[in-house]
Write a structure and sequence with these properties.
Layout: E1 2-7, H1 12-20, H2 35-41, E2 45-49, H3 52-64, E3 69-74
Parallel strand pairs: 1-3, 2-3
Amino acid sequence: MVILILNNQELGMSQVEQMSEHYPNFATDLHNPDFARYAEACGGTGMTVERPEELKSAILKAMSMNLQVIVDVKTDPKRF
């Protein structure tokens, strides 16, 4: 099993809803754990992708393993 986490450290949709209603940004920043290390602590494998050019090889590697894998993909919070 391969799990991809698109990790922008925010609740982006909630932030956009707040902005569209002209509310101040409140409680949308997340302090996520290190998902790759979490996977390893649970007996699986974890990978972290920090640059777009790393994504394809990480996914191919994850799919070739016979383990549970979490791929923590760091994304730009401003892209939402």
